[in-house]
Amino acid sequence: MAYLIETWDRDDAGSLRADTREEHLGYLDVNARLLLACGAKLDDAGEVASGGIYLLDLESRDEAEAFIAADPFSRVNLFERVVVTRWRQAYLGGVSYL
Description:
This protein starts with a strand and ends with a strand. The model has no long low-confidence stretch (mean pLDDT 95). It is built from 3 helices and 6 strands; from the N terminus they run βαββααβββ. The protein has helices at residues 14-30, 61-70, 72-75; strands at residues 2-9, 35-42, 49-57, 79-87, 91-92, 95-96. The longest helix has 17 residues, at 14-30. It is an alpha+beta fold.
């Protein structure tokens, strides 16, 4: 089953994101088998991140919440808001799963 996690950065956290980025990317690499997709939400110029989106293949909401809690970005209090939502995979990569 899939979960969507959407995060919003605190307004004052730009340097915190930059300082923690490599650790965050390492965490994603270690957990790559769980990731359907993920990435930063960017401004229109594609230069400034303000949060992220994760699509995860997990068995439960508890696992999704544990995943985001263990993310280094969470551990350094980067996020102002985090929303975990059950997600139905209808199309991914041009393939129908319906």
